[in-house]
Amino acid sequence: MIPDFKHIKLKKIASTNVYLHHLSETKKVKEWTVVTTQEQTNGKGQKGSTWQTKPGDNLTFSVLLNPEVDPKHAFYLNIISALAVYKTLSDLGIESKIKWPNDILVNKQKIAGILVENQIGFNIKQSVIGIGLNVNQTEFKSSLNATSIILKTQYVELLNVQTQLLGYLAFYYNLLQQSNFKLLLKLYYSHMYLFNEIGCFYDGKSKFKAILLGITDVGLLKLKKQDNQICTYDIKDIKFIF
Ligand code: BTN
């Protein structure tokens, strides 16, 4: 079922995630409220980074959900968001990979980033899912190692892509609400970058090779090192080396 979206469209804002979060602190915000902006002046990325894209060319938006799921399943909000982006790209003929936790890559270049910010009480009361998807931008600083939909296929209307993406987000959210964790994890693994393969990683001390076994129950990255030791990592503690 397609939810009843409430769409707030802005020209310029610091960050759609911050805007939506503040809005929810000042008044009751309905589930499936979507805030989209043409330009972010202080877009937030993971691990305190910033998200920079060319104004007007790309999708930068946030969605508010009230999942009421057990906090131990918080990572599934990352999973459903990544799957929604993956499927939207796949419909456009673009094969992508989900790099843990939820970067979307095409041929090892980043096409989308996702920032999930949860308010946790007894359950997950509120989740703000922020998505930055590179759509019609044709040039990127080489240091960003980024790509976009137009560079992989052709020009597409931002609103069409966003509508498709929100539809898929609703679809996977429905699976989450039905507690269909098994299927969601299976789908995540089937599109996960380096799943069951050997990759090169950096843990802040040394570079090493390991097999990417998947994720733990709480979404930590699980690696099997060359000495067969199985180690788990939080996002701030591990880097993929390309
Ligand atoms: C990352 O890959 O580091 C995550 C990037 C998330 C960017 C999006 S753009 C819309 C939303 N608002 C923000 O400030 N950040 C997210």
What does this structure look like?
This protein is of the alpha+beta class and 242 residues long. Helices cover 26% and strands 32% of the residues. It is built from 5 helices and 12 strands. A 7-stranded mixed β-sheet has the order 1-2-3-7-6-5-4, with helices on both faces. Helix 2 crosses helix 4 and helix 2 packs across helix 5. The protein is globular and about 50 Å long. The mean pLDDT is 97. The chain binds biotin (BTN). The site of biotin has 20 residues, from helix 1, strand 3, strand 6 and strand 7.
What is this entry, summarized?
Helix 2 packs across helix 4 (158-177) and helix 2 packs across helix 5. This protein has helices at residues 16-26, 75-91, 149-152, 158-177, 181-190; strands at 6-13, 33-40, 59-65, 97-99, 103-106, 109-120, 124-133, 198-202, 207-215, 221-225, 230-233, 239-241. It has 5 helices and 12 strands.
